[in-house]
């Protein structure tokens, strides 16, 4: 979709603030902060040390920052630059937790045959890059937001509205069962229900685009049933029924449904995908006894117009159809995670400001974004009432990657610092455009 920005040039004064703040950008500082954060292990549910470090860094950089504990091992960091009270509050947001534990006993072989350097929480600087678990996503993201706010502070910009820089734990789409079941946006839900609020939000993620729609996500668990048996029993014995072979049939039929699902569930900016992501059946230490159950797990993404009840009803229908095809398939299924998609009106101030910022930095009209399916904290933040736009930086996978890290998603652990400079200018533009205006100027009539 081609979005149109509402023309509203920066005033000469605002342009001066913008240029002064951009002049404070320091690539070496950004690389060092990304390195320091990457070197602090922060898997989902264990982000305390990284969040506390970031809190200290923000305070040293001129922001007023606090650590917000969520559990014994998880917490958020919220920094603030205070304006004169007449303008809007803008929140810059990125998570701080990583998607791997970086423990071979947990992550191997599921992440690969071994843990590569980009999957380990031991940071390395290599030329223009920072390597290590989460170096690109999320560590460079929150580092860029922090440095953007620092530049505004260092330039002495007279703010009317406040700038918040927030980073939360529990942001990754997984549930850390060993750490209080943290995850699926647990950190931002805690933050936004415990005294932190704003008028507008900007989430910083991969892809140098402007998104006003945010994908949702549903997880389903399917169990195919048989009977516990013994490997010495001949096939065809009535008392023995496999759970795994019927599970394979169900998986193939689910794949057929999932292959057509994206094209039939698109919205303006979202083309939601779905995957059969995990299969579990039997005892790996005693395969002599085929199990009575085979479990199949799916992640299905959604657009903002789909309710969770609607996608559940669709999945129920799909599963009933699959089961009816076979005499030997006995299955049950359930919904185990829901996170509804969300949308900000594209005419909202923060979306329009992001569009103007993108066009200013790139010096051309915004052409429109590639269709999206990646679920983030954005869905929850927007659902909780905060108008939010997603902007970002070029995905490192679109560039020449070091060959050793080019296979698969890896640890999202290759941050290219030079790719973050233009996006930082984009962030600074939004801050100047928004936080040097009154609430009425940005379309907020109440609270003036």
Can you give me a brief rundown of this structure?
The protein contains eleven helices and 15 strands.
Question: Mind explaining what this structure looks like?
Answer:
The chain has 448 residues and is an alpha+beta fold. It has helices at residues 12-22, 27-38, 48-60, 104-107, 135-154, 186-192, 244-264, 308-324, 349-362, 378-383, 421-435; strands at 64-69, 75-81, 90-93, 124-126, 129-131, 163-167, 200-206, 213-214, 216-225, 274-281, 293-302, 331-339, 342-343, 388-393, 414-416. The strands form 4 sheets. Strands 1-2-6-3-7-14 form a 6-stranded mixed beta sheet, sandwiched between helices. Helix 1 (12-22) packs antiparallel against helix 11 (421-435), helix 7 (244-264) packs across helix 8 and helix 9 (349-362) crosses helix 11. The radius of gyration is 24 Å and the shape is globular.
What CATH architecture of the largest domain would you give?
3-Layer(aba) Sandwich
Largest sheet: 6 strands, mixed
What is the H level of CATH, i.e. the homologous superfamily of the largest domain? Zn peptidases
Low-confidence stretches: none
CATH class membership of the largest domain:
Alpha Beta
> Strand portion, in percent?
15-25%
CATH topology description of the largest domain:
Aminopeptidase
Mean pLDDT: 95
Number of helices: 11
Helix content: 25-40%
Tell me, briefly, the overall form.
Answer: globular
Structural class: alpha+beta
Domain module tally: 2
- For the largest sheet, list the strands in their spatial order: 1-2-6-3-7-14
Computed over alpha carbons, the radius of gyration is: 24 Å
Task: State the total count of DSSP E strands.
Answer: 15
What is the chain-wise order of helices and strands?
HHHEEEHEEHEHEEEHEEHEEHHEEH
Q: How widely separated are the two ends?
A: 35 Å
């Amino acid at each position: 979709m081609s979005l149109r920005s509402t023309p509203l040039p920066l005033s000469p004064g605002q342009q001066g603030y913008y240029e002064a703040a951009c002049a404070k950008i320091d690539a070496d500082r950004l690389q060092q902060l990304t390195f320091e954060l990457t070197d602090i292990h922060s898997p989902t549910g264990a982000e305390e040390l990284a969040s506390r470090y970031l809190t200290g860094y923000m305070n040293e950089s001129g922001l007023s920052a606090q650590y917000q504990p969520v559990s014994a091992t998880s917490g958020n960091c919220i920094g603030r630059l205070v304006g004169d009270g007449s303008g809007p509050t803008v929140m810059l947001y990125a998570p701080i937790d990583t998607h791997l534990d970086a423990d071979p006993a947990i992550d191997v072989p599921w992440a690969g045959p071994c843990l590569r350097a980009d999957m380990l929480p031991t940071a390395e600087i290599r030329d223009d890059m920072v390597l290590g678990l989460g170096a690109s996503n999320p560590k460079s993201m929150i580092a860029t937001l922090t440095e953007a706010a620092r530049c505004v502070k260092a330039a002495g910009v007279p703010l009317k509205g406040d700038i918040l820089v927030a980073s939360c734990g529990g942001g990754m789409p997984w549930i850390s069962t060993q750490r209080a079941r943290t995850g699926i946006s647990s950190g931002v839900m805690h933050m936004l229900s415990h005294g932190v609020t704003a008028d507008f939000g900007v989430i910083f993620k991969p892809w140098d685009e402007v998104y006003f729609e945010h994908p949702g996500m549903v997880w389903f668990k399917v169990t195919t049933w048989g009977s516990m048996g013994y490997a010495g029993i001949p096939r065809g014995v009535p008392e023995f029924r496999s759970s795994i072979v019927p599970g394979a049939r169900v998986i193939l039929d689910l794949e057929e449904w999932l292959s057509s699902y994206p094209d039939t569930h698109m919205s303006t900016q979202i083309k939601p995908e779905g995957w059969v992501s995990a299969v579990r059946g039997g005892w790996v230490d005693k395969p002599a006894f085929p199990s009575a159950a085979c479990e199949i797990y799916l992640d299905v993404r959604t657009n903002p117009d789909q309710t969770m009840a609607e996608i559940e009803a669709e999945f129920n229908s799909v599963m009933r159809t699959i089961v009816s095809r076979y005499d030997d398939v006995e299955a049950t299924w359930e919904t185990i995670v829901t996170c509804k998609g969300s949308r900000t009106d594209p005419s909202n101030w923060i979306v329009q400001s992001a569009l103007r910022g993108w066009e200013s930095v790139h010096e051309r009209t915004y052409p429109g974004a590639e269709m999206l399916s990646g679920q983030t904290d954005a869905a929850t933040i927007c659902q909780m009432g905060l108008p939010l736009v997603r902007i970002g930086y070029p995905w490192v996978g679109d560039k020449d990657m070091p060959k050793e890290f080019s296979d698969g998603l890896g640890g999202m652990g290759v941050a290219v610092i030079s790719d973050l400079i233009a996006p930082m200018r984009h962030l600074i533009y939004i801050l100047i455009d928004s936080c040097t205006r009154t609430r009425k100027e940005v379309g907020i009539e109440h609270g003036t």
